Amino acid sequence: MKERSSFSSKMGFVMAAAGSAVGLGNIWRFPYLAAKYGGGTFLVVYIVLAVTFGFSLMVAEIAIGRKTGLSPIGAFKKLDKRFGFVGVLAALVPVIIFPYYSVIGGWVIKYLVTFATGGAAQAAGDTYFSEFTASTGEPILWFAVFIGATAIIVALGVEKGIEKVSKFMMPVLVLLTIIIAIYSCTIEGAGEGVKYYLLPQMEDFSASTVVAAMGQMFYSMSLAMGIMITYGSYMKKENSLEGAVRQIEIFDTGVAFLAGLMIIPAVFAFSGGDESALSAGPGLMFITLPKVFNSMPAGGLIGALFFLMVLFAALTSSISLMETIVSVVMDKLGWKRKPTCILVLAIAVLMGLPSSLGFGLLNGISWQGLTILDIMDFASNSVLMPIVAFFTCVFVGFFLKPKVISEEVKVTNGSFKAEKLFKVMIKWICPVFMVLILLSSVAGVMQWDLGPFDFLKV
Ligand code: PHE
């Protein structure tokens, strides 16, 4: 049998995994949540959760991948036949996300091109976004460009494609983020926004702050979708797993934090301190921010740099989604990489079309007020992912036993500093958190009345 591909170094692994973790969620959702749930308080809660809860789940997933040398379906089956279904569910998540994530990636390219060609004023128009997404051909074209670029990189392989691209894009992304954040903090009227973002506002702190931070962190670290298992299977035993996870955390949280410094002060200055201008989702990124850029000096350039940075963030995430699917198919059918990429690309394009058309031709199709794209997002992020994470914890905590993961972590140099924390988290705390996240997001969309527990809905 052919030897499994691998990342050439720990740094290569960290860049690729951080590339997956740093995505649209860091840029458009984190700043919004931080602003809504108590500024500095949210940051502290988020960081504490990342280094305990997120850390433990990520260690477990990467260790499962590296120990078995397989992508999620094979990995769970190899460790315990009865838990094979967890691998299947985990693999289903990227299958659902990859197509619609690429539709949004296409929108990002469209905005990058618009800003880079001097169209800032146009992009700032009130109906620009809704007209663009409601049209038929153009969004599909940009979707095809984005998903095609992803497929080419994945087809080039783990080391020559994914690792190379991540090692280039991630440092550039950080640099761009820092430049834009500095610029944004220095425009007139930005100071209020910086204060609003960073100063802890205790009166905004409540149990929902914790639930919101939990949900965001778990999505942001690319957990429960088989990605970290797949990337772990390409990690060499001589690279420190615990050290790598610490670095990924710093990367992911650092970029999320900087994204807030980039967006909140600028939006504040533009809106004269109106917090509602920060509302999350596509509206912030594709409607509010273009207006903000258009209003600042050198806004065309800053807008272009911003969308380039977002494009890098989205590409490295979509690469990880596609790689996970490709890896599952290769492991399962024993196919070569290139034909597998062609098959996965073809299916993903077909699956992405309805999401793209859901804003125009197919806008009659909706459920609970959600478009097709939002329904996909709900099914994967709010329902499947917490279920996968819950069973992963129960499996590792009570069937496989945390000791097996610890041994895998210690293979490198005998040390696992946070071993005790890991054990307690994975057995007792993470599963409870997962149930809360599931309840919170499902109840939110279904508009259930949870009585005294209504705070869970975020
Ligand atoms: N972690 C990514 C983010 O924060 C989300 C993501 C990554 C989604 C990979 C899918 C695949 O945006």
Could you provide a short overview of the structure?
The chain is mostly helical. 76% of the residues lie in helices and 0% in strands.
Describe the structure.
The protein has 458 residues and is mainly α. The chain has a single domain (10-456), classed as Orthogonal Bundle (Hydantoin permease), CATH 1.10.4160. The protein is built from 19 helices and no strands. It has helices spanning 10-21, 24-36, 40-68, 72-79, 84-116, 120-123, 128-134, 137-155, 158-186, 191-198, 207-220, 227-232, 241-271, 282-295, 299-333, 337-357, 372-400, 402-410, 419-446. Helix 10 (191-198) crosses helix 13 (241-271). It is globular and about 55 Å long. The model has no long low-confidence stretch (mean pLDDT 93). Bound molecules: phenylalanine. Residues 20-21, 23-26, 97, 101, 219-220, 222, 317, 320-321 line the site of phenylalanine.
Fold blueprint:
Blueprint: H1 10-21, H2 24-36, H3 40-68, H4 72-79, H5 84-116, H6 120-123, H7 128-134, H8 137-155, H9 158-186, H10 191-198, H11 207-220, H12 227-232, H13 241-271, H14 282-295, H15 299-333, H16 337-357, H17 372-400, H18 402-410, H19 419-446
Bound molecules: phenylalanine (PHE).
